[in-house]
From TrEMBL:
Highest taxon of the lineage: Bacteria
InterPro entries to which the protein is assigned, alphabetical: KR_dom, NAD(P)-bd_dom_sf, Sc_DH/Rdtase_CS, SDR_fam
Species: Psychromonas marina
Lineage: Bacteria, Pseudomonadati, Pseudomonadota, Gammaproteobacteria, Alteromonadales
Keyword Oxidoreductase: yes
UniProt name for this protein: NAD(P)-dependent oxidoreductase
Length: 255
């Protein structure tokens, strides 16, 4: 494919789940896409699949490594430099134990990825985004940013950071061409729970069987919709759940 005039889309965590579905969605619509993640084999396969549809640049990138993020940005080919849509999607949960039983290493990995990684990529691309006539940043937060639940301690807190960071960016960029959205999905079927529970297939089945969970394609559709709103509209935050999911009562632990 040759370079086209649609805005260039950068997606972190495009090797699975929401990121993968979003890459496919934007490619089908003819947007030039930059796909990143840590798993080179998956990026290669996706790149091969999508290149007949659009311009694709893929790069192995661990968002936790700020030197790598800066080098990645610097070394983007000329045709992909003017990123106008940033989908900060890379992220993970690890474990769901009560806080006093949780692993500190897991907590650090979630903070390093969901908070520091997202900040690294955002900071690196802000100058480019500001230089576009119109730009959109979509940050993957979660319902866990808004609602506490047992076992969510650092995961939920990391997503609350993402949600508030998004609102603060919005404040900074009010009246400019840069739009910012905090996208806050609930239960969605992807490798998320396999990662969270170290590949435990039983647990995966327990969570998703008969739950009619959101699918990655649902999130990809929403992401495309957000970006295709007229330039004067900013979707600040968007919380989305499957109809099978809702809030529960406050618990009262009797003594
Ligand atoms: P998946 O596990 O399917 O995908 C996660 C993606 O993040 C993978 O492509 C993975 O790629 C990438 N990733 C993880 N760590 C890093 C890293 N250090 N550097 C670069 N990429 C990384 O999960 P989902 O698609 O479900 O999750 C996507 C986002 O949505 C996450 O931020 C998650 O917290 C959030 N979310 C998920 C929900 C759900 O229920 N599924 C609900 C609400 C929010 P690789 O391993 O190749 O690096
Ligand atoms: C993922 C949704 O409810 O598992 O962010 O935390 S939840």
């Amino acid at each position: 494919m040759t370079a086209n005039k649609r805005p260039i889309v950068l997606i972190t965590g495009a090797t699975s789940g929401f990121g993968l579905a979003t890459a496919k969605k934007f490619a089908q619509q003819g947007y030039p896409i930059i796909i990143t993640g840590r798993r080179a084999d998956r990026l290669q396969a996706l790149s091969t699949e999508l290149k007949p549809l659009t311009d694709v640049f893929s790069a192995v990138l661990d968002v936790r490594d700020n030197d790598a993020v800066i080098a990645f940005n610097k070394q983007l080919p000329e045709a992909f430099k003017q990123v106008a849509i940033l989908i900060n999607n890379a992220g993970l949960a690890l474990g769901a134990e009560p806080a006093d039983q949780a692993s500190l290493a897991n907590w650090h990995t979630m903070i390093d990825t969901n908070v520091t990684g997202l900040v690294n990529v955002t900071h690196s691309f802000l100058t480019t985004l500001r230089a576009q006539p119109s730009a959109t940043i979509i940050n993957l937060a979660s319902i866990a940013a808004n609602w506490p639940y047992p076992g969510s301690s650092v995961y939920g807190a990391s997503k609350a950071f993402v949600a508030q960071f998004s609102r603060n960016l919005r404040s900074d960029f009010a009246g400019t061409g840069v739009r910012v959205t905090s996208l806050e999905p609930g239960l969605a079927e992807s490798e998320f729970s396999l990662v969270r529970f170290k590949g435990d297939q039983e647990k995966y089945k327990q969570i998703y069987d008969n739950a009619n969970a959101l699918q990655p394609e649902d999130i990809a559709n929403i992401i495309l919709w957000i970006t295709e709103q007229p330039a004067h509209i900013n979707i600040n935050s968007l919380e989305v759940m499957p109809t099978s999911q809702a809030w529960d009562n406050f618990k009262i632990v009797k003594q």
